[in-house]
Amino acid sequence: MLPDYEQLSLFQDTKTDGVQNSNPRIGTKTNQQAPKVSTKALEGFGVVPIPFWECDFDTVYPILAKILPLEKIVFTDFPLSTAVVCEIICSAICHQMNWDFLRKTVRSKTESNKEWLSPKYLSQISEEEVFKMFANYSRPERIRKEERAKILRSIGYWMKQFDTAENAFLNSDGDLLAYSDIRRNLLSCEVFSNDPEEKKLHLLFQKLATYSELSGLAKYYQPAIDYHLIRCYLRRGLLVANTKYAKDFLYNSNVQRKESTMAAIRHLCSEILLNICDYTRLDANVVNQIEWNIGRSICIRDDPDCFLKSEDAKWLRTHFQVCPYFASCASRSNKDLLHLNEPVYTGSSY
Fold first, then answer.
1. Which pLDDT does position 344 carry in this prediction?
2. How many angstroms separate the CA atoms of 54 and 232, rounded?
């Protein structure tokens, strides 16, 4: 059975935690406060400088960039207006669901009825229809029909301000809008404005930049940090817990997490990813995809495939006999890091 590739969720916590503002929103219609980042979490973790002693990232990452697997399910054969809505939906409701399963489901539903992508239809979609879409998911407790239906309805309402979804990105001549305008357009949608550290917005940029008409989005891309990356950076020792608070985050998966705590972890992981980009001279989009594919195929939850024995590791075996990061991975000396798992999710933001 294939491993369940899950996206990062954010977690509520009952603990008191100092916070600071991060990533102020511009031009949102919701007038909500900027997401907050936990100073306690920021101070509890340390980021290992790159390069470090015997760091081989300058040779490993360029190889990984050349052998990255392609997206399994694509929408490129749809009209751009259709494809853009599909990408928006996948980025918006990706939390705690297998990415390939999600894209396959969205594609299948679109092939059978493209009208479901219209603003009117989405703004009225029922919880029952959402459940039916994902009814054969291997982990039914993660379908979360209420949450996903609410998100899809919010996308429908948001789309009503545009003739077609690509108008949020392109002007009447088909040219890319200024970044400030694109950002304002997207942050007027609740699912993107309520997302700390803007993981979903930057995931969307990453996917839309593969379309020729929207390729200019690549220059605006910032890291999209999901739990695959967090888990990998913790296991590899690039993100280090220095306080009891931070160590509880690592090993007590039953403690529910604040959004501000997860925003801080994402912020630190973004710093690590950009440091890797500086050292390897690779684009952030490429490094992000490398880390995500490693996290979803070999550095998986519960039982990481360090020796590349599974079918999912096949894309690496032409160039590597073990995990590409094996030589410097902290989990080789600290086996507890191999058992890191995503905390229990009870929050409402992702």
1. 54
2. 19
